[in-house]
Every structure is written in C-alpha cells, then in structure tokens.
UniProtKB/TrEMBL annotation:
All copies of domain Gem-associated protein 5 RBS, residue ranges: 1109-1209, 1246-1316
Chain intervals with Polar residues compositional bias: 1296-1307
Domain Gem-associated protein 5 first beta-propeller: 67-199
GO MF annotations, alphabetized: mRNA 3'-UTR binding
Protein name per its UniProtKB record: Anaphase-promoting complex subunit 4 WD40 domain-containing protein
Naturally occurring in which organism (per UniProt): Pygocentrus nattereri (Red-bellied piranha)
Domain (Gem-associated protein 5 TPR) ranges: 847-1055
Positions of the UniProt region annotated as Disordered: 695-776, 1284-1329
Keyword tags: Repeat, WD repeat
Annotated Gene3D superfamilies: 1.25.40.980, YVTN repeat-like/Quinoprotein amine dehydrogenase
Length: 1329
C-alpha cells in the first residue's frame, strides 16, 4: 500500500558506471544515498512506487534481471561491500553475498544466464554470484582498479571489464577469469561499456585512419559482437571482440550551444557514458561534455555521425554531465532514461529524439516548504543542495513541473517565505546567514540584503513595518517588511524596497519600548499574527514573548516550554469562531506541542505583561523534538506537526486527539505545509532528501509509534550488537546529538556532503546528513572528511582539566541529605550571624564559596595543602595569587622551580626587591633548563648587564653576548674587547678564519686579523691578508704576506697578479725586478722547450724577441719599473734589496720553477752589479746563474742558459780572467786554462778558435765530463780523510814528512796545482797514482 501521493525523491548517486536501470515492465530503479527508489515510467509521466532500504552505505550499482518472468528481481551493490538480490514487489532481499573485500564499483546482471550477477571492485576482483544456488566465484584477471563491466548478451561466459587506466579486458569466467583480449586505446578511465545487441559484427563506416582492422572493417557472420566504450579521454571506441581490435574511434563534438566550447585539456567535468539500445545495432547513444546526449549512426559517412537529442526546443537537455542511461519499450514507443548531475531524471523518445518528461530530484535536506498565498499551488522548497525549487503542484500535464533557482546562492537554503500580496516574490535565507528576495517569474538574479546573520537563518516572515522603518508617509515605506531570525539569536527587519540599506535589530525597539535593561534571551523563531497586530517570539530558554505592533510592547510571556523553541504558528484568521484567531501553537525540543489561547492578553492588554504558565491544549505523542507545524487552512483548530521521530501527526486541537500519523519518510522531518486547495493533502520534507505529498484520509496509523527511543536503546544494549556498535564508534567517533540543538543545526553539524562519493571531483555537493547519532551524520559517506573525524576523535579524547578546588568539588558529590543540610546551614549563616561562630570552622570547605572572605581564605588554605600533598604546585600558586598572597605564591614557585613568565610579570606588584630576587631565582631555573638566552634577557631586565654577558659567554653564545655588550656598554669597555678576542680564539680553533679576523679587527688587533686570514695559505687569503695588513699600517707583515702571495702566483705562472700584489709595498721593488727577469727567462725558455708549461697570464713586454737577453732585461727595467741607469743611488738601493733576498744553493730535488727563480735572482744581481761597475760581483753572479743547472744535473738548462747569456761567445782573455776570478766555476775555468796552455804552443788565433768552436763547449758540458768531475771530487774527499787519520797517529813520534800534504799535492784540482811549489811533475805524486 502506497502511503504517499507524489514524491520528490533523493538524487541518483553520482560517478557510478551503472546506478540505474529499467526493466521490461517500465519500472526504473536508481540508487540514491543508501536507498534504491523505484519509479513507474510511461511516455507521459513518472510516478514513484516506493524504495528498497537495506544497505548501510551508498548504493554504487543497480541492475534489473532482463529475463522473462524475472522482471521484478534486481541486484544492488553498495559501499558496504555487499551485493543484494531484491524482489521489488515484496521489497525484500532474496539473497546476498559479501565476497568483496574492497569497495564495489560496478555490477551487471547477465543477459544470458538469468541467475548470474557479476560485480567488480576497486582492487580488481571480479565476483560471479549465482544467487539461485547461493554460489560465488572470485577472479583476479588484472591488478587494476575496475571502473565498469558488462556481461556479453551473446556468450554467457564473456565479461568485458573497463579499468581506471584505460584498458579493457575481455575475460572468460568459465576459465577462471582468463583474459581473452586486452583492448588498448583509451588513455584514461573507462566510464561505461555497452554491447551491441546483435552478435554479428556487421560492416561499420569509418575513416581509414580509424580502421585498425582489414580493409573491409567487418566480420560478417562471425560471432563475438561489437563492444562500445566511453572514456574520460573524450573518445568513444567500437571494438571487435572476435578479433580483439578497435574498429572505430569517435571523438566528442564541441557543441555550439556551449559557447566557446570546452578546453580539451579540462576533463574534470566529463563523464562519458554509452548505451546501445536494443534493436538498433547501428545506433549508439552517448553523453557529451555539458549534459547533452547524442545518438551516433555508425554506418553513416562523413564527419558528423551524431545527432543531438532535444534539439527541437531549448531547455530539453541536461545542464550537467550525464552518468547513466537505460532504455525500455513501453507500448509502441522506445524510451531512453537518463540521470545527471543536475539532479534531474529525463525520459527521451528515441524516435523523435525529444524529451518526454523530467523528474526533479533533491540533493540535500529539505529545510523549508512554503505555499504561495498569491500563486495558488506554487510550493517553494528550500533544499540543502544550495538550490530553491518552485513546484507547480496543480499542473495537469506535468505532475512534477518545477523550476530551479540557484543564482547567487552559495549555501544551503534553510528558510523561505512568499510575499503576502506580491506575486512571485520569494524571500530566502541560507545557512551562511544570507537573506535575499527572488522574483520567481523573472530571470534576474536575486536581490540580497547587505546585512548578514552570523549564523544560519532559521526563519523568515513578512509583517508590518515597525520603527524605524514605519516612520514616514504611506508612500515612503513598504506595506510589508521582511523579518529574519538567525542562529545567533537576532531578529532583523529588512526593507524590501532597499535591501542594500542596513537592517535593524528589533531588540533595540523591544528594550526601548518596554524599558528593559538586561540582555534579551537569544531568539530562535518568530511568527506574525496574520492580521499583523501581534508578534510572537520564541527564545532559546523556552520562553515565548507576545508583543503588540508597531511599538512591540510586551503583552505577555509564556513560560511553558523548558527547552529551545523550534517553531511557532498562529491560527488562521478566516475561521467562523473568533476565539480561535488567537491560538498560538508552539513546538520545542521536548516533543510536546502546546496551544495557548492569548485572546484576553491581546484584546485586553494590561499595564504590565501577563505571565502565562498554563496551556490551552497540550498535544503529546511525538517521541522526539518538534521541528515544524502548520494549521489547516480548511479546518478549525486542526494542526499538523512534524518531529525528529520521523513522523507527521495531524491533531484535532480542541479535542486534544490525534487524527492520523504519516510514516512514509525514512529520516527526521524538518518542515510541513498543508495544501492550500485540498483539505486532505499535506506536504512534508525531511533529512531523507525527499518531499512527500500524502493524504490524511489514507493513513492507517492514528498516532506516532510509541517508545521508539526505548526500542532503539534496547537494541543498543543487546549483547550481540554491543560489540558491533563499539567497533563502529571506534571507527567513526560516535556522539549523541544534543537535545537542545536547533532544528537547522543538524546538517550544520552533519559533516561532509550530500554524497561525497557522488561529487568528489566537483566539490559542489551539500553537507551530508543522517538520522540519529552525530557520528552517522558525519560519516554516512564512505569519503567522510578526515578532519571531521579527527575533530571528533580529539573531542572524545579531550580530558577534563583538573579542578582548582577539588575538595570543594568533592563536597558537592555527597548524599542529597547532606547537600540540602548545607543549604539550610548557609541560610542560617547568612541571616543569623550570631549562631555561626561555633560552626564556622566546620563548614569552611563546603561553604567557603558562599559565605564571607575569611571562610574563603580558610578554604584556600585547605585546598592549597591538598594540592601540595598531591604535587600540584601550580594550583597552590594560583590559589595564593587569588588570595592576594603574591609573595607566598612566588616563594612556593621559587622553592619548587615552578616560576613562570606570568608569575614573574606579577612580581613587581610586591616591590622592587621581591621582583629582583624573583628574577634571579628565575634565571637560575632557566639555566637549569638550558634556556640561557631567556635567562640573560631577564638579567638585563634588572640591569645586571655584565652578569648577563658573562652568562652568555660562559655558554658559548658569543654573538648574542657581543650584541648585548655593544648595545648596553661603552665602546671602550674592556669587556667588549675581551669578548671579541675570546670569540676570535674559538673561531680560529674551529677554522672560521674570516669571522675570527672580523673579531680581531673589532678589537683593534690588526696584526692578528691579518695573520689569521693568512692561515689558510691560499692565494686569495694571502692577498686579502696582505691588503689588510697594509691598510692597518703593518708594513712588515704586509711585506712578507705580499711576497708569499707573489711566490704562490709565480708558481702558478700568474705573472700579472704577482706584479699587482708586489706593488702594495715599495720595499718589494727589488722582488719585482727579480720576478720580471723570471718572467722574461720563462718566456725565452718556453720557446726552446726547456719550460713545458703555459702561463696563466703574462705581460706584453715578456714576449720573446731577437733582442739580446741581458739588453732586454735593462730595457724592461727602464720602461716598466722606472730604473735610471745614470742614478747610481737608485741602483745601489736596488742592489741592497736584491742582496737581501735569500738565495740558497741549488739541490738535486729542487723543482724547476723554483730553480728558475734562483737563476733569475743571479741574473738580476749580475745586471745590477754590471750597472754599478762591480765587475767581480757581476762575473760571480753571472757564472752562478750559468752553473746552477750543472749543480742539479739539469744540463739542458745549463746549455740554454749559456746560449742566452753567451749568444756570440767572448774573447779568450776575457773568459780566462772571468774563470780565474771565480772559485765556484772550477770546471769551466779548468777548461779555459787548458785552452790557454795550448796557446803557448800554437797561435792565439787557433786557441781562440778552439774556445769558440761548438765542439769545445759540447765536450765541456757533456755528461761524461760531468761524471768524470764527480768521480774526482769523491777521490779528493777520500784522500783528505786518510791524511787526517795519518796525522793523528804520527803526533807522538819524531817529526816526519806529513802525509797530510798528499791530498793537496796529488789534488786533481788544477787551481791547486798552479799554486803548488812542487809542481805537477813530482815523482812521489806519480808513485801514489
């Protein structure tokens, strides 16, 4: 038996591949929230038949059995991981299974096997359920998320499965889910699959580039069948399941009606569903971008293979994306049913492609219903999906003729009110506090009030203007004002002619008129009497105030309810019984409806307000809070009320009897309206997302069900369900709804979305609502907001803070008799002081809060003692602080190490000395806690700067210590320099040389700064240190550092940089001359190959030329370094600088670069000595430069030096004189003297020729000659040691010829032979050899 007449149901669930289906009898089923609604479909209209309730979470799939005789059987899947088989006639479950362990994403009833239901989940598991024998088989064909599946209508074992990654698998369930074909081509998730109704794969028309099969593109007479798929990649594909290949690709058109079209890269708004109608193997229906439906002719040639449905008239198409489609033949017409995100279900005629009818659905709580007093039969619905719907309930051709308003509405619509006289003017209020007015018969956006409520708008009503809006002439003010009540407890009066003006708070007028000084109780509802003379206001404390217009003088106050007033309504004024005109019905959260007769208070007002405490009638029967009520406009004293108990109750008020009870809703009821034209019809809306029209006379129940709450409590207490409830609470954080919460607060406290799983990509769904526990309200969706759960969890875990007065609190938990005796004792103490003395001490703990200060102080002492024993020192401190004992509180905190910034801030109230001691104690406490910076800051507060600096320094906070010292001490304070030096030593030890140098500079230790920078030893550091020392006046240090840097640069052959660094000091000019010679020498030797490296940089004047080497040196010195050959004083100075340069002897291990620097110094000294005329020194340095290569065994260097220094040779006499004057060049002079001896027996010309000959120098400088000279030196050393030993043994004997002269006599040194008196022909010497 159907209890309702018409129903606007909840919206079909979004983002499901198959959540609606239609059977052969024309019954449409679709999943909405956790319910399945059944709708009878004809070509003319639709009618809701009923619903299937049994799932605990969102329904994710629905499919009918399409076999003969099984039309009333259907299958559903849900996010509760169950699959159920239903009989829609009995509305009962026939079978079910819970084989899935993950969320089920798709379901289909096999068109071939009538007992087979196939489902898939997000983990990739496919479950086959034969419900007749209650048998299940699970397969795992691919480890991918399943988005959709479809059973083949041609082969009972074939199932096509579409995955999230765009792949399609054709599996055989008879072979344990073996994959027959993997169809690849889509790039993104598969939204829908549809099989061609014909098994033959007929020829289809496609462009050559789309045809991936053979040229014929067909498999006539071959089984398998075509498969169509729609994907988020904006394409449809037709597949040959026999070949496992795609045969056609269709791209969605960008229709002109969408303006500029849709960006192909934006795919969030697309859901591409496909449907292959029966009997139409060449036609395919698909959705498009913005809610359009197109039918494709697969055999048609050309680019446009599609035809748009609903193109004959505007407004036929969906306005949002379409999710599901199904078709059915009703009579001789083939109908297509579509569901969309726009919350409309449309029926299409596939022959004409026009829309037959539209069934609106609702996506949120129905908060408000309001019939227009002018436009008869127009019912406005305020819904939680952020939309207003106006339903023409009297329409004959379309029983569900509705219009939707959504512009400028960003929140749930919680209140509605039609203008009493102006047609089409509808006021609305929203959850975000907005108040506006829609003109329902125009397309203009609504006007919005500039004044917002801070919380949800609970109620709206039109009434007469009151001050200040009532001032002025009749033409200057509106006939009606708009009044709104919000959750913050304020009622505003809005000017409908000027909503941009600020609304007025009527509380000001109420206080002024009635001379009220105290704050008024927050208002929760109000109602104007239809004649506009009296305003009733319901308050949060349960009181009702009745005020007379226009001054709002308080006529009476009703103190009947004890909880928040949820609804108020005056009886209509067209009754034949005038005594009924002043009946006021009120409902609150205590489930009882009270009727008050206020005729005497209104018609005969007294000077002072009347207090009403007795009701005219009391209507009891509901088992939960009353949310709304309405008087019948067709009867006298007939009232309908709705409640959280889920029922609507019609009452005969005068008889205090129930008339009927409506139980058609599956959730709490929030609003009610009596039909203005039919006395038997009532409209109700609730949190089950439905609006239902029902007839009073057709209801079988007379009163609400009894003890519903008690039954629920008993179920909760049942042992077998207690554990389950605990688990649920643990997972979702269950909380009970507060008894006194407002009727508009459920959804506000209700959590995440009307169906978050429906619209997770859109973000436009409304708040999720449910029925009783707040946890269910929060977590009805599987995608419950995590932060809501976290908030609930934290709320449950939040511990109550420790009481400051635990003894006093414990005294309040004594037996009732003792507590009542305390009241008597307190009264006696307050009014009979003489009898209190003896019992004063006895009642200190329990009555200290209520007697005098002395008793309170004693109570504080007892509480403090208790806290000390328990170790709650902070509580002790606060008690002493409250008692005014600041010193005592500080003392306790100091002793226990519990000082805080707050206590320290209070210390100055006790005097400077107390404050200073407290700061010092706090500093010690902070040091123990290693909060040294904070401790130092507190020392500064009592002007102990040096102590603060020492504290920071002792704990290595040098930077902070220096900052503090610089800010608070004199610049010449020794402590500052000590800080710098100490920090520099630490930094230097840690290798932070640059920062250490800064510290030394700040401390005026310039020498140390330069030294520490130079420690690193690299060129950059040495250069910086040299410049720093020069700037600081440390000339000697700058001299040495510059020279070190230059030498490093010379080794890296960076001659330009070396000369630049040497320019810093004038005393380094001599070194510059040496570096000049070294650069010239290196460049000359690089040409001959002796120097193999390249220079990093060099001067232009160092390039090799044909000029003589020595002449080139003098020229460069004069031009680049300002050397004047005529200025002997300058040359002498240069000579002294060069002589001061260290010039050690060469060793065999000396690097070639260092050897060349020594050679350059010898050459420089020789040139300067020559300029001074000191030929002896010049020759000596000249010969040293030539022989350095010989000393280290680098004979090629020596040969090249001879070529550089003796390019054309010299006269024999000059060379001999040179040889005789230098003892270090014995080998060279020996050769020259040998040439001189030859000159006695031959002409001097021949000797000179020998010397100048190339062979002479080659023999002289050859390796064998060098080896011979080395051997002779070894023999000479041995002879010297033997002579010394012989002398030591011959001293005691007579003098004999000493053998000590033998080494000299037989010396092979030609210089010694020339000076010996014996001559070289001594026979003894010959004998020794």
């Amino acid at each position: 038996l159907r209890m309702h007449e018409r129903v606007l149901s909840a919206s079909p669930n979004w983002y499901c591949s198959r959540c609606s289906d239609v059977n052969r009898r024309g019954v449409l089923g679709f999943g909405a929230k956790s319910t399945v609604y059944l709708v009878k479909v004809t070509a003319a209209s639709a009618a809701v038949l009923g619903e299937l309730s049994g799932h605990t979470e969102r329904v994710s799939g629905f499919a009918f059995c399409q076999h003969d005789g099984q039309e009333s059987v259907c299958a559903t899947s849900s996010d509760d991981r169950s699959v159920k088989i239903w009989d829609i006639e009995q509305k009962a479950v026939l079978a079910e299974h819970t084989a899935h362990q993950s969320t089920i994403t798709s379901i289909h009833w096999s068109p071939v096997e009538k007992g087979l239901v196939v489902s898939g989940d997000e983990k990739g598991i496919v479950v086959c359920f034969w419900h007749g024998r209650n048998d299940t088989h699970s397969f795992f064909p691919e480890p991918r998320t399943i988005f959709c599946l479809a059973c083949s209508p041609h082969n009972e074992n074939h199932v096509a499965v579409g995955y999230k990654d765009g792949m399609i698998a054709l599996i055989d369930i008879s072979k344990k889910g073996e994959v027959i074909h993997r169809l690849r081509g889509h790039d993104e998730e598969i939204h829908a699959l549809a099989w061609c109704p014909e098994p033959k794969e007929e020829d289809l028309y496609s462009r050559p580039e789309e045809n991936t099969a053979d040229a014929s593109n067909g498999l006539a007479e071959v089984g398998g069948g075509y498969l169509a798929s729609g994907s988020r990649d904006q394409t449809l594909r037709i597949w040959s399941t026999a070949r496992g290949k795609g045969v056609m690709t269709l791209k969605l058109p960008f229709l002109k009606r969408r303006g500029a079209g849709v960006d192909p890269g934006v795919k969030e708004r697309l859901w591409l569903t496909v449907h292959w109608p029966k009997g139409r193997p060449s036609q395919l229906v698909s959705s498009c971008f913005g809610g359009e439906l197109v039918i494709w002719d697969l055999t048609k040639s050309g680019k446009q293979k599609w035809t748009l449905l609903g193109s004959s008239a505007d407004g036929q198409n969906h306005s949002r994306i379409v999710f599901n489609m199904s078709s059915v033949c009703v009579g001789d017409r083939e109908l297509l049913i579509s569901t969309s995100m726009d919350r409309e279900i449309k029926c299409w005629d596939l022959a004409s492609l026009d829309c037959c009818w539209t069934l609106p659905t609702l996506g949120g709580f129905v908060y408000s219903l309001s019939f227009s007093p002018v436009g008869t039969g127009f019912l406005a619905l305020g819904v939680g999906d952020n939309m207003i719907r106006v339903w023409n309930t009297l329409s004959i051709h379309n029983l569900y003729d509705t219009k939707t308003y959504w512009q400028n509405i960003k929140s749930k619509v919680t209140a509605l009110a039609w203008h009493p006289a102006k047609e089409g003017s509808l006021a609305f209020g929203t959850d975000d506090g907005k108040v506006g007015i829609y003109e329902a018969y125009s397309n203009k956006p609504p006007q919005s009030s500039s004044t917002y409520h801070r919380r949800t708008v609970y109620s709206l009503d039109w009434g007469p203007p009151i001050p200040p809006l009532s001032f002025g002439g009749s033409g200057d003010k509106p006939t009606y004002s708009l009044y709104s009540c919000g959750g913050e407890g304020v009622i505003y009066q809005h000017d409908p002619w000027k909503l941009s003006a600020e609304a007025s708070n009527i509380d000001k007028l109420i206080r002024d008129t009635n001379n009220i000084k105290h704050n008024l109780s927050p208002h929760t509802d109000f109602s104007w009497k239809p004649d506009g003379k009296v305003l009733a206001i319901g308050n949060e404390d349960g009181s009702i105030e009745v005020l007379g217009a226009p001054g709002l003088k308080l006529l009476c106050t009703i103190q009947q309810h004890h909880k928040i007033i949820n609804t108020l309504r005056w009886h209509h004024q067209h009754s034949d019984q005038p005594e009924l005109h002043c009946l006021l019905a009120s409902g609150s959260s205590n489930a009882v409806v009270y009727i008050h007769d206020l005729r005497s208070a209104i018609e005969n007002p007294s000077e002072s307000p009347i207090l009403v405490t007795e009701a005219f009638r009391s209507l009891s029967g509901h088992t939960n809070k009353i949310t709304s009520l309405a008087w019948s406009p067709h009867h006298d004293a007939r009232l309908v009320t709705v409640s959280y108990d889920g029922t609507a109750q019609v009452w005969d008020v005068l008889k205090e009897e129930p008339v009927c009870n409506y139980r058609g809703h599956s959730g709490r009821l929030l609003c009610v309206q009596w039909s203005p034209v039919d006395p038997d019809l009532v409209w109700t809306g609730g949190d089950d997302f439905t609006v239902q029209e029902w007839a009073v006379s057709k209801q079988e129940h007379a009163r609400p069900p009894k003890s519903k709450r008690r039954v629920e409590l008993e179920k909760k207490k049942a042992p077998q369900k207690k554990t389950k409830k605990k688990k649920k609470a643990a997972g979702k954080g269950g909380l009970k709804t507060e008894e006194n919460e407002s009727p508009m607060g459920e959804e506000e406290k209700g959590g995440s979305g009307a169906d978050e799983a429906q619209s997770e990509d859109e973000g436009e769904d409304e708040e999720r609502e449910s029925t009783t526990p707040l946890s269910d309200v929060f977590c009805e969706s599987d995608n419950c907001n995590w932060f809501v759960l976290l908030f609930l969890e934290l709320s449950l875990k939040k511990r109550k803070p420790r009481s400051m007065l635990p003894l006093s609190t414990s005294m309040d938990h004594r037996p009732k008799e003792e507590l009542q005796q305390d009241c008597l004792t307190l009264a006696a103490v307050r009014h009979a002081h003489e009898n209190y003395g003896s019992s004063q001490q006895q009642y200190t703990s329990c009555l200290g809060l209520f007697t005098d200060r002395e008793a309170l102080c004693r109570m504080f002492r007892e509480e403090g003692k208790n806290h000390l024993e328990a170790g709650h020192y902070d509580s002790v401190m606060y008690l002493r602080l409250w008692n005014g004992d600041l010193v005592g509180a500080l003392h306790v905190a100091t002793e226990k190490g519990e000082l805080t910034d707050h206590l320290l801030s209070l210390a100055p109230m006790a005097g400077y000395q107390v404050w200073a001691r407290t700061v010092e104690a706090y500093v010690k406490q902070l040091c123990l806690q290693e909060q040294f910076l904070k401790a130092a800051s507190h020392l500064v507060s009592i002007h102990k700067i040096y102590e603060a600096i020492s504290l920071l320094k002792a704990h290595q906070f040098y930077r902070e210590a220096i900052a503090l010292a610089k800010a608070r001490l004199q610049p010449d304070d020794p402590a500052l320099k000590d800080l710098y030096v100490s920090w520099a030593a630490v930094l230097e030890k840690d290798g932070h040389y640059t920062t250490a140098a800064k510290c030394y500079l700040a401390a005026d230790c310039n020498f140390d700064a330069a030294k520490v920078i130079a420690k690193k030893g690299d060129v950059m550091s040495l250069k910086t240190a040299a410049n720093l020392a020069n700037l600081a006046g440390e000339s000697n240090l700058s001299h040495s550092l510059s020279l070190r840097c230059a030498k490093e640069l010379m080794l890296s052959q960076d001659w330009l940089a070396a000369q630049d660094i040497l320019r810093i000091q004038d005393t380094l000019l001599g070194h510059r001359l040496v570096f000049c010679v070294s650069e010239l020498l290196t460049q000359r030797l690089s040409v001959t190959g002796v120097v193999s490296w390249s220079s990093a940089s060099s001067h232009a004047w160092s390039k090799p030329t044909e000029e003589d080497f020595l002449s080139a040196i003098q020229r460069v010195w004069q031009s680049e370094f300002g050397l004047a050959t005529a200025d002997l004083d300058q040359i002498k100075a240069f000579h002294q600088q060069l002589r001061a340069i260290e010039n050690p002897s060469a060793t065999a291990s000396m690097p070639i670069k260092q050897l060349l620097s020594h050679v350059a110094l010898d050459v420089a000294l020789s040139v300067v000595s020559q300029l001074l005329g000191d030929w002896a020194s010049a020759v000596e340095e000249f010969l040293r430069a030539v022989t350095r290569g010989f000393e280290v065994g680098h004979f090629s260097l020596m040969a090249e030096m001879c070529q550089l220094l003796l390019p054309q040779g010299e006269t024999l006499s000059f060379m001999c004189s040179l040889a005789l004057s230098h003892s270090l060049t014995r080998s060279l002079s020996r050769s020259l003297i040998f040439v001189q001896m030859l000159s006695h027996t031959s002409s001097s010309t021949a000797a000179e020729a020998i010397v100048k000959s190339e062979g002479f120098w080659k023999v002289l400088l050859s390796e064998p000659h060098a080896s011979l000279q080395a051997t002779k030196r070894v023999i000479q050393d041995i002879q010297s040691r033997v002579s010394s030993l012989v002398q030591q043994h011959s001293r005691p004997q007579e003098p004999q010829p000493s053998l000590g002269t033998q080494p000299q006599t037989h010396s092979t040194d030609l210089d010694d032979e020339l000076n010996s008196s014996e001559g070289p022909g001594d026979p003894h010497n010959k004998q020794r050899y």
